[in-house]
Amino acid sequence: MGLFGSKPDIDRLKLTADFKGLVQALGNRDPTIRERAAEALGNLRDDRATDPLARALGDRDEIVRGRVIEALARLGGPVARKALTRAMGDEFIGNRERAREAIARMIQQQDEAKVFGLDPLEQKEEPPPFEPLRERDGR
User: Fold this and answer.
1) What does pTM read for this prediction?
2) CA angle 102, 100, 52 (to 5 degrees)
């Protein structure tokens, strides 16, 4: 499955969570394949996808760029936000609006997290194991 060879099976790549295969599919000559690969990478919620998706904002196809914007919005984080800020300059008004809305959602989520004393960008630690109240109270 080369960059310009046969069409990759995006459904199989999604099913097996084949990160490398999906990133490679972002370079396929078929815009439908690139579009579906971008969507799949966003759905994986794997932070490693942020950089390849940010690079894909330069795709010549406006629909592919739109899917890339949506995928970056799902991933979140400072690198995705920077890429989305860049996407606000897209030549297609629909993509500019998608990027603006995505950034607004990210800001809202960050503000909501602050209300509850959480930082959505910090590393999450495993919560402590649940202890029934009766054991903690010595009952």
Assistant:
1) 0.78
2) 60
Each residue's pLDDT tens digit, 62-90 = 999 999 999 999 999 999 999 999 999 99
Cα–Cα dist 53/65, whole Å: 9
Query: Which domains, from first to last, does the chain contain?
Result: 10-136 (1.25.10.10)
Please say whether the beta carbons of 120 and 113 come within 8 A: yes
> Which two three-digit tokens encode residue 66?
């739109």
Q: What sign results for the dihedral spanned by CA atoms 38, 41, 47, 48? A: negative
* Entry field: residues in the chain: 139
Indicate the angle between helix axes 62-75 and 31-44, nearest 10 degrees.
10
The CA distance from 7 to 11, in Å, is 11
Is residue 78 a contact partner of residue 103, using CB atoms and an 8 Å limit? no
